[in-house]
């Protein structure tokens, strides 16, 4: 065996000698310039650049795909000597040249190494190692160097560390166990995000209304970025602590948690997509998936990634790791924001210098088995800053888009939340079986509304998220799954009824992860074609022109075989009714049989459906609010509204353009249930009953030991109100009252958070107010505050009350030798603030307080407040006598740089201090007990003297 191996290596060396130096393409030459082995080295050659002949068999390419260290093209590979032991391979080799180890470096690492090799500059490195034992040994040998050790498959690990190129070259580059080295040039950062998400823009409000039991219950989502604030009442009782969480808490993370799973406790529009889902957190440093067991043990089926790095157009370690994570965790869907660099150009890769394309922020977004989400405004217009595709190899990116207010972060979060709802609904419809992540991806993509250019495009992907249609696919069970082998053809029948305006079919599969820096990420190539045998017609999937040119990238999709994407979609406008056949073919499957998923759905002709408001929606009184609908009519309609159960209809607009799919309505100033209807021809289309309301503005009157008083503004047509308090997870009904005030027993308050809602005439509560923490409103027991402003010899007393309810009298009082005496009794008016000027102040300290007399005879006192006064030219020291280890206070009308001396009974000066303030502490705490004399000098002249006693 050894002799045979030696023969093969010898043959390889003969080939090197025979073919080295001529016949290579310019592409091969450029690689050789970077990776050619040093000619004078005496070390045995380990790695070779292998170029196949043009007519090399597909079988040889399959073998090399898995055996090669790196693939540059279908004909060009980096291989080691073990590959050259295959005798049948030798006949297919065109060239074979020994190379150095620099092929292990990513383009970014190559470029930085050339410029920073001799500098002690620290970078974040990611190093792919095999086998796992090697990375474990390295971890033990250099514990201070490693940051994280993450398994990405059964026999591979990624070591993440901070180091410099000198150390990387010394410890890793020439080790056979090291497969690939990447460098992260930019830390991950949140891709913006501001409050104000709108669930109606992507039909999520329709899902909440039509599927009230689908709320994310039992589903677990991980938010990979910085940590959220666990005291946020909108995730109360529904977060899981994790050792993977970042120590840095950000508002962005809170906002993502709220969009995905907010309870709506704080206010109605803080209700997220899946408001009963469980939330956990994982830090986004490093940008790698968590270990497989983390997802499994914590039941995580969605991980949201609303962050990015620099534009990075290559299939790097992060992309490979996320593809492997998806394959190792078939229930887990990774959801990424596309980025906010849509107006920028990539600096490297196939699309370098093309502004407005190929600007996804991070090579991890080049993964195939994830969903990447761009951003649109609430009317489906792609935002200019939303990062665009294609991926580095021409694949369609982003996969879809969703609404945002300021950045693609929110768009990704909306898709993550929607996926949780789909997973819960699928379990209910399929006897508790889990929704495969790839099938969820297919559903989201195929039900998206086509926007921008017709068909898929590099701006909006396959369209704008439509959560209602996505739920409908599960409801109607328009789903197929199967497994196919190479060259095998399978057929699925799809029956299309009459009166259909659009038919959509999509094929997806979780593809095998490619090797780092693969020229094309797709490994297993599966194809679809749709036929209508009765009409002898066929349709291939939509394919975009990925040539690196602006005109090409802007061109419309055409129907042809797709050899790039692991998502293929066919659509037909106005399809004929009949029995269609979908043909699935295993075109090229080097990694073996491939599992796939099919989703189909269709839109009907002549339909109108309200999108907003839905029954669960809140419309604010006196607002300028947008009404939305879905529609296939090409005409105008008559728009009307009515209140409650009334059959009286009021006109809004008599000539509404239905094609716009929205209308701005000036909502009446009222609190009521209401309905809308659209008249099209002789047909009426009604909304569900929804609420028109005004948010109440509650305030705290007082917080006493036994009770708390809450009051709020009165609303029109409202005579009853419902109070809520925060329970274990959600705001819960608490007390009903028929007034705009409530006195709540302190014993019944198990939470500090309260809210109030008006109750309509039919007994249904309208929308709650903002939830507020009553203990943080600055209220006291009737007295919110009492303080003194002093102006020389007068004191201005200020009193602020929380409420005047049950207040019989108010008095201001001053302390005297015989106790507190009333100095003023202001008349009670409708105001909460009272003041009184007391003059003149006596020298020294004067104490004042306020007293409230209630109707039941109870008296409430403020805390006493002191006023300090010294006449011009006078100096007052207090307290006298003074307790040991305390300082004494000096009071003067105006400090003019005087000096105070303390002298003991033996005449020794024990303290000297400048007087720089009209009220100043004299540092006597260190003096012993006894009698002392003080002397005050001004400009060298003694102006005051006296004695003090320290006890």
Helix percent reads: 10-25%
CATH class membership of the largest domain = Alpha Beta
- The number of distinct structural domains comes to 7
CATH superfamily of the largest domain: Peptidase S8/S53 domain
Low-confidence runs: 1-24
Name of the CATH architecture of the largest domain: 3-Layer(aba) Sandwich
Top keywords for this entry?
alpha+beta, Rossmann fold, seven-stranded parallel sheet, six-stranded mixed sheet, 15 helices
Chain-wise SSE layout:
Blueprint: H1 2-19, H2 26-35, E1 47-52, H3 58-67, E2 70-71, E3 76-80, H4 87-90, E4 93-99, H5 107-116, E5 123-129, H6 132-141, E6 146-153, E7 156-163, H7 165-173, E8 178-184, E9 189-190, H8 204-210, E10 220-224, E11 239-240, H9 251-261, E12 278-282, H10 292-297, E13 300-305, E14 307-308, H11 317-328, E15 333-337, E16 371-376, E17 400-403, H12 408-429, H13 437-446, H14 467-476, E18 479-484, E19 489-496, E20 500-508, E21 525-532, E22 537-539, E23 542-543, H15 550-554, E24 558-559, E25 567-573, E26 578-588, E27 594-604, E28 608-612, E29 618-620, E30 624-631, E31 636-643, E32 650-657, E33 662-666, E34 672-680, E35 683-686, E36 690-693, E37 699-703, E38 707-711, E39 720-726, E40 731-737, E41 741-745, E42 753-759, E43 772-773, E44 783-791, E45 794-801, E46 807-816, E47 819-824, E48 833-838, E49 844-854, E50 859-861, E51 865-869, E52 875-878, E53 888-892, E54 899-904, E55 909-914, E56 919-922, E57 930-938, E58 941-950
Parallel strand pairs: 10-12, 10-13, 11-12, 13-15, 15-16, 16-17, 29-36
Antiparallel strand pairs: 1-3, 1-4, 2-3, 5-7, 5-8, 6-7, 9-14, 18-27, 19-26, 20-25, 20-27, 21-22, 21-26, 23-24, 28-30, 30-33, 31-32, 31-34, 34-35, 34-36, 37-38, 38-41, 39-40, 39-42, 42-43, 44-45, 45-48, 46-47, 46-49, 49-50, 49-51, 52-53, 53-56, 54-55, 54-57, 57-58
Helix pairs in contact: 9-12, 12-14
